[in-house]
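User: Some background: our group keeps a shared notebook of sequences we're curious about, and every so often someone picks one and asks for a predicted structure to add to the entry. Today it's my turn. The entry only has the sequence so far, pasted here. Could you supply the structure so I can complete it?
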Amino acid sequence: MVKISTVKTKPYGDQKPGTSGLRKRVAVFQSNAHYAENFIQSIISCTTPEERQGGTLVVGGDGRFFMKEAIKLIVQIAAANGIGRLVIGQNGILSTPAVSCIIRKIKAIGGIILTASHNPGGPNGDFGIKFNTSNGGPAPEAITDKIFQLSKTIEEYAICPDLQVDLSTIGKQQFDLENKFKPFTVEIVDCVEAYASMLRNIFDFSALKELLSGPNRLKVRLDAMHGVMGPYVRKIVCEELGAPANSAVNCTPLEDFGGHHPDPNLTYAADLVETMKTGEHDFGAAFDGDGDRNMILGKNGFFVNPSDSVAVIAANIFCMPYFQQTGVRGFARSMPTSGALDRVAKATKIALYETPTGWKFFGNLMDANRLSLCGEESFGTGSDHIREKDGLWAVLAWLSIIATRKQSIEEILKDHWQKYGRNFFTRYDYEEVDADAANQMMKELETLMFDRSFIGQQLAYGDKVYTVEKADNFEYSDPVDGSISRNQGLRLLLTDGSRIIFRLSGTGSAGATVRLYIDSFEKDAKKIYEDPQEMLAPLVNIAQKISKLHERTGRTGPTVIT
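Assistant: Of course. Here's the predicted structure to add to the notebook entry:
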């Protein structure tokens, strides 16, 4: 009989979940008494006792430092609070897309994901706890606000301190708890199985197997960046689809991601970029820590901008059997993502939604049967098969297009630009800048932009002159539930259709990250193959000048350019 204890605690005022859960430095969780316990209790307190009794929670994470300690606490606190069953990935490992898949498959009441996504790991890195609801998607603002309110007033939490679970053995473990009529069940599951089974029903695996292992096989290089995706890539792409074992690299999940930043972009996945530049491989991809983001590269390191990636998948959507069956209900992109997807939507007469950054906004549209495919410029692409972005899904979508069209990535992109025109796009990230300085910069910029005389002003750099058409702070009225999300990013819209956008990001754990986005459409066939940085240089300079970005942040340049 396992004992249930009640532990007195004091609330913390800083447990407000960001766009993807609560993310802090590992030290915050380790050095503040009951910090993780308070937040876990606040999540579980969001569910009703009736839901808990017959309900299941899915639990897993990306393998980062402090994950196993957190899972142990979740097991002990969930048991004490009357949750009927937990389903946990073997050794605690589950990708974020796999958690979403399992929640939906077994009709769980929700899931807790231990990840800080693409942020660094290890004792000096970041840790995160994220709650997904019964639709498999990130908790909407009404629920994250409720969790935050509970965390600010918590006085005690319930725990079974002696309850120990073996995470390494697949199968069920049952525990009799004092004062509980039913035993508490923990089921350890293979981390890949349910997710792989779902993908088999979405893609033509026989066509993909022919592409990856046939006589004229496509040479691929997939980099799991020592995050959660290693087991998935090995089992699905190598073992099942037949790609040679050496196609997959950095496939062992490590607590510190091998000392690297598990963020699939040109800066942090530089090893993959360099390997692709040798021309030995036709297709390259990298995944982030928890497996929901992806970067696609063609031969010789040809980079596929994420904004273009979702547009190309949209234009070739029927290469996937799943969409032949379901049809296409709508497309969506986050506001900072380039307008490339809009052009495909217009040409195909399919509804397009522009949402704030955060996958939960897409989930609402999907649950209302309004959305089939969506993407974010931050290397996130996905569809309505789950309620999270999905890195491996995006890779298999691209491979399906290549298998159907029998063209290289570069040829596919160039054909696309010829047909639809090209949205030149770049993003400048200024990471971990002083939060007060960043907020002050945004405040002053807003004052400048909202002055009536700003509309119609001419902004010049070199021989390029742009005219301001509109300036606002993006606001979204959800067409499904009517909720309004304000202050989602400062937008400067110019008369030629170009956009300059400034946002403070909600996914970092220290300081603030300022993001500057530039999007400019070009339909002149002679210019569509130019270098984006050269094409966008005038707009970048104008953006830095009007915002005084470098003066206000003390930086001479961005941390990352995409």
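Suggested note for the entry: The chain has a mean pLDDT of 95. The two ends are 55 Å apart (CA to CA).
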